Amino acid sequence: MSELEIFKTKAALKAFLQPLKASAKKIALVPTMGALHNGHISLIKLAQQNADIIICSIFVNPTQFTDPKDLEKYPRPIEHDLAMLADAGCNGVFMPNVEEMYPTGADEAWHIDLGNAEFLLEGEFRKGHYQGVTQIVKKLFDAVEPDVAMFGQKDFQQVLMIKNMLAYFKLPVTIITCPIIREDDGLAMSSRNIHLSANDRKNSLVLSKSLQFVIDHFQEYSLKELEEKAKAFYNNINGVELDYFTIANGDTLEPAKSKEENNLVALVAAKVGSTRLIDNMIIK
């Protein structure tokens, strides 16, 4: 099956998947909003190691955008995306329209308990964002009923929220987190990078450099000193505005209290020009 199948409706997708499930094929879902890059392709490649059939979804979900302008300017290069998926050996792509996922007249009220981490970091800057994310991921899981689903580590907090949503609904899906794919100079790949001017693109390297500093000097300084020194990277760069830089517990996203904690991650968000970028590195 080298041909990339395209599905616009849940019914067509289910009809395709049913016989495959009946013959005990393992299904992986790679949810995306399109504007694909090598980071997404790495998710497909990892999915191929963990499942028999790979379904990628492309849907720009309106309920997770806290700024309507952001939704409007989100890139949608669909021909490019389909070519990339076909090249990567993806089996099917689910490309519903908004009406298919949010039918007119349906009760779309959604609010679930995602734990305190929902309100930290990104949750503070984009209120309601993770309710929208978990709402659409639940809809995609219902449509595909995958055995495994692939998410990128770059959206570290998002992965945590999706795991909390899975626990909330007791869904039998295994989440696999895939490492961040970076450009040669260290910038984390992102669909938003196309909005960076040449100068912004140069300035954007401060995110990965400040994170790498924490990794490289973790033994030398206290947590407080590491954070202060990392934040200082942003002091004199015109056109870069730091939203947060934190060393957090990877399970709760609360600020880390001690270097001895088992799961530590450094996370950063900054506005570079008019584009907001996020990045993180796992310390341990």
TrEMBL record:
InterPro entries: Cyt_trans-like, Pantoate_ligase, Pantoate_ligase_C, Rossmann-like_a/b/a_fold
Keyword Nucleotide-binding tagged: yes
EC number, as in UniProt: 6.3.2.1
SUPFAM superfamilies: Nucleotidylyl transferase
Positions that bind (R)-pantoate: Q64, Q158
Example of a GO MF term: ligase activity
Enzyme class: ligase
Pathway(s) of this molecule: Cofactor biosynthesis; (R)-pantothenate biosynthesis; (R)-pantothenate from (R)-pantoate and beta-alanine: step 1/1
Subcellular location, principal: cytoplasm
Function per UniProt: Catalyzes the condensation of pantoate with beta-alanine in an ATP-dependent reaction via a pantoyl-adenylate intermediate.
Alphabetized NCBIfam families for the sequence: cyt_tran_rel, panC
HAMAP family, sorted: PanC
Protein name: Pantothenate synthetase
